User: Fold this.
Amino acid sequence: MTEFWDKTFRSNKKMWGEKPTDNAFTVLKLMQKHNKNSVLIPGFGYGRNAKIFYDNGFDVTGIEISKTAIERARKYFGIDVIIHHGSVSDMPHSKVQYESIYCYSLIHLLGKSERIKLIEDCYLQLIPNGIMVFVALSANDKRFGIGKKVRQNTFHSYQGLNLYFYNEKSIKQEFGNYNIIELKEINEPEENPNEIHWMIVCKK
Assistant:
């Protein structure tokens, strides 16, 4: 599995780019508004979204399955950032609790049981009044329906990944027990968007 994600990382790093997503800036402002100073980032990648938090004084921790991505991240963060090598399916990787969790464009790559476990695991790793933000593919995204249908709202993409597309009903089914305080569809990037996601914000 690690070899698969290393290969996927190498083939997509140019597409993902070096700069943080527009949404990362939005979430930074949200976390600052709620006076959060630490963040756990499942699906850390090479840290493009982590940079904005790190540069603004957050205590940043990541979880990443790709050794290649971690090696690249180390060139920027050095030893200042803890990056757990492993799958989000194996959370928790430590007993530490965090003020916030930011999970961007990851949960829709998982099967239903894995998604439910990830949401629960993240919630359990929040301190009281902690905030967790998930950004997940919307059924209104242009990729919905492309590729072989695997199961309801799930399609096998040309990249070899199964993509699950959320709608408002499925969000409430999976996140409804975790105190949703904000739910909205977002464009990424904000100008000339090529993706449509849901931004789901829960407070413990």
Notes: The two ends are 32 Å apart (CA to CA). Confidence is low (pLDDT under 50) at residues 1-16. Strands lie at 38-42, 59-64, 82-85, 98-104, 126-137, 148-151, 154-156, 162-164, 180-188, 195-203.
